[in-house]
């Protein structure tokens, strides 16, 4: 048995998966909400069937009548699984595909009809992309898993000779291809590579790009210990893994061409602001720029047209070192803390069950779940910021909780808008290779409409909440972008229902800037029918290109709407999670800052465990503890002894997790009384 995937056909199926309730219909075109809806069948639009080969069409005709069954399709001597059935085979039969392999996607770029009259009878095919675990941008695996799949480029520089003991200087670039998010920077690290370990433990990259034979032995050991079998790629230094100068030169050419300007050797104004800021820092950014160059060279193989960079979101890497903690805006969790406290992964099998993330994750959107992980990895340190977030969580509880729950309900079937928008932006200038771009634009517009309506409905709570953060998030024109006029423009421009059903943009009559081709002579002069239809399709394609260009002009607004929705999703998740704790809870009090001379301290009465619950331990089995550490009247540490399995590690995790929860914006922690300096 073999597993095969046709990328044109799977894209259609992915659209149905992304927005199942809106797009999926049975053989009689009934929606899932219809009482006679038959989930065992699937309606296949004629345009989709016409795009298939004879074998693909035959497979889909069988499958559409038996959606409740796994189809073993015989081809030659083998039975093969395709599309969604291939995923069933991978899961149930332990068949693995694309695990540790690079997939070279070669697509047909002309039809047999176009080949007529040519001596060469084989149709033209071209490499369109390279698909790996770190470059996956569509497919069921991506839509079903909200976790970011990071590709990470890493380079290293030593102030002394590489064989001598010295501090490490790392350049890191981590890329989430599915959201076009690029985060890069450089930092000094200690001999144990503590900061690098922290980054690896937090993001668990699925793919690593590194310069061949350049990393130290200690760095290689860290990569092996703190990752989970990533795909490793070695590039030739400078030639492939570019240095800083070559990276800047390539970026100027790419963005100069994108912005349609001529670029001189010393001209940097064409670069995005974040890149421009980094380039101007000189030697302090050379490793960071080299890491970015290594990532760009590798990604150029997967995306030959450089479309990933067109709307990429560049951000500087958060400070990763452990010096000067008072200047950092967040609590630094090293690799030992992330792993031993089981923040994201448990120690049993490495998944999220039983972790702090699983306990807090009540988010309904995929992009909200990713933001929650970011907040957990970097709890706040500034007291005023913590109090602002506590006020926001408090404003979503009590009498406002029903409105918050309605917000979640309205977004519960929302596709992964962050990834969907990135997919549309990156393919905005593509010709017509992806036949489902029209449907994707429709799904994006519907999703933006749903988010805008949900935020507007939640805004009713502002009349009786004092939280400054909620007022900023829910007031149109502040953090929340006002997209009503933009959405109305697209509603007036074309028929949304027709776009969803047929995958075609049909302009509404009389809309300024769009023209509909339709001549009564077509019905009379049958000899001109073929030419007229061809011209009509050309005009409709031109219309779609202008429409998608208009959509991309507002990319900042759409992204900001997604960001605002994600933050509200996480705040509501924290409000709900705080009510799940057993035993007494309180709002922790913060006194002073890291800059004060007063000795830091922690005081908690009847401290419980934020993860261990009676459903796993038995009712009343957990004994709360009173804890006081630090301050002027107490020791700054506790010396804990006791028998094996007596609860020493549990108490340690209990105290540490409580501090993290208090600083991660959660309103309630499991204690009768809590105070932190």
TrEMBL record:
One cellular-component annotation, GO: nucleus
Which Gene3D superfamilies does this one have?
1.10.1420.10, DNA repair protein MutS, domain I, MutS, connector domain, P-loop containing nucleotide triphosphate hydrolases
| Domain DNA mismatch repair protein MutS core intervals | 351-615
Source species, domain of life: Eukaryota
Q: Give the InterPro entries listed for this entry.
A: DNA_mismatch_repair_MutS-lik_N, DNA_mismatch_repair_MutS/MSH, DNA_mismatch_repair_MutS_core, DNA_mismatch_repair_MutS_N, DNA_mismatch_repair_MutS_sf, DNA_mmatch_repair_MutS_con_dom, MutS, MutS_con_dom_sf
Gene Ontology biological process terms from the UniProt entry: mismatch repair
User: One GO molecular-function annotation for this sequence?
Assistant: ATP binding
Which Pfam families has this protein been placed in?
Answer: MutS_I, MutS_II, MutS_III
| Residue spans crossing the bilayer | none
The identity of this protein, by name, is DNA mismatch repair protein Msh6-1
- Can you name the source organism? Glycine soja
